[in-house]
Amino acid sequence: MIRKAAAALLCIVPVTTAAASEPAPANAMIQLRRDGVASRPFALLDLSDAAAVKGSKPSSRALEAFLRSLDPGKELPKGSLVIRGDALLVRLDLDGGAAEAYADLRPSAEGGMIRARYRASGRNFAGRSKSYLVARVLYNLGFSVALDDDAVTGLADVDHQALAPERMAESLALFLRAVQGLGAFERSLPKLLEGAPGQAETSRRLDALARTFVAEEAPSLASAARTTAAADAAVAGESVGAPDSAAFVARVSYDKARASREGLVFVTPYAEDVTGFGKLRAVVFTAGGGGSLTALAARRAEIPAIFVASAEWTPSRGAKFGSGAAAVLLREGASVRIDPKTGELVVLASR
Prior knowledge:
By secondary structure, this protein is an alpha+beta fold. Helix content is 26%, strand content 32%.
C-alpha cells in the first residue's frame, strides 16, 4: 500500500504576524526533520474553516496526500500549496519542468475530482520522454489524459473516472511522487533505454515503467525502474461485471477478505457471491460465466468482473492460464492490468 505520512518527521511551523497574539494557522511552512536537521521549508496556505493541521498531524485528507508524496530522505521540492478542507491546489517547480494539481477529495458524486498537469521545460528527447512517462502514469491511475506538445493534463472526475476519496488521495500522491522523481529518471534514462532499437521499444519500456510504478505504489520512479517487467502476458477474458470503468492496474489476491480490505483484484476458481465486498477492485473467476452468481453479484455491486474460460489451479501456486510456452502463472500479489470494457487481462511481470 502507499506509504502513510510520516508524522514523526513532519514539522509545520506557523508564521506569526505582528498583529496576531497567536500563530496564524492559515499561513505556515512544512519542513521535514532528518537527524535533527530541518529541510528547506515549503509554503503552505491553509484556508480551511478548521485548521488542516492539529499539532504536528494533518487533519486534512488533501494535506495528508501531499505529505505521502514526499521523500523524507530528500529535500522538499520548491513550490507552493493551498489547502481548504479536503481540497488542494499545489504547484511544484521541478528540475526541467513544472507540475500542478487541483484536487477535491470528496466523493465523486459530490464534486470530488483531480486535475493534474505537467509541462517539461525542454522539447528535447529527455523532455518528451518525461512527458510521455507522466502521461502513462496518469493513464494507469485511470485518468483521462491529454498530451499537447510537452504539456500533459490528466482528469479524474465523475464523468471520466469516479473514484472513492481514499483512492483519489492515493492517485494524487502517486502523481506528485512521480513528477518529483523525474530528475533522477532523466539521469537514468540512458541506462533504461540502452539497446532499444527504436521508438516502439522505447515506448514499451516507458509504458512498463509507468505500470510498475502505479501497480507497486513504488517509493520512486528509480525503484520502479529496477523492477520493471521485460514482458507482459495477455490473457483472453470476457467482461461480465460492471463494464463502464476505465482500464486500471492493480495487484491480485486469492484471499477475498484481504482483496476487499486492501482494494485488490480477487481471483477465484469458484462461483462466489461478492456482495458486501464493495472495496474489491475487481474479480477474476473461471467458473460459471456471465450468468453465474459471481457475475450477477459483481454487476449489483458495480465491480468489474472478468471471466476466463479455463485455467489450471494449484493449491500453492495459484492459477495458470494457457499452456506450453504461452502459459501465464498468476501468483499472489502479482500486478495486472484490466480493461472492464474489453475483458482484457494482462499479467505484468517485473524487469
